[in-house]
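note to self — DONT lose this again. spent like an hour looking for the file last time. sequence + predicted structure for the chain T wanted, 139 res
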Amino acid sequence: MPMPMEYRQASVDFDRFILDARELAGLQTTNQAYTMVQAVLQTFRRRLDLEEAIVFADVLPPVLRAIFVAEWDLEEPKSPFSGRIAMTREVQAFRPDHNLSPDSAIVDVAAALRRNIDEAKLDRVLARLPAGAADFWRA
């Protein structure tokens, strides 16, 4: 079987995504965008159990999938979906000395994600996840 294109093109696809995230958030560097993306993914991940997270990870491109599951503390308690402001503050509290995530961080990452994956597939997966998941990824 040949190597799947999603793996062959993983770096190119991630570069396109991270540039979109940087642009949408009005950040200066892709390093700043990476921290924002990592924070948004971890904030979302805290609201899923392991099975739900695997279902969600399967819709992500390879590099984002790796970021989503990296450094996962499986002992961390599951958090409820709360208001956008509270979850944005959680994003901004991630690595605070290096985090310049704007108040629009979740929306910006959601918009970048939707630009770079099959939105219909994402929406089908989000419909299977707990209440609040689809709203989290609404751009």
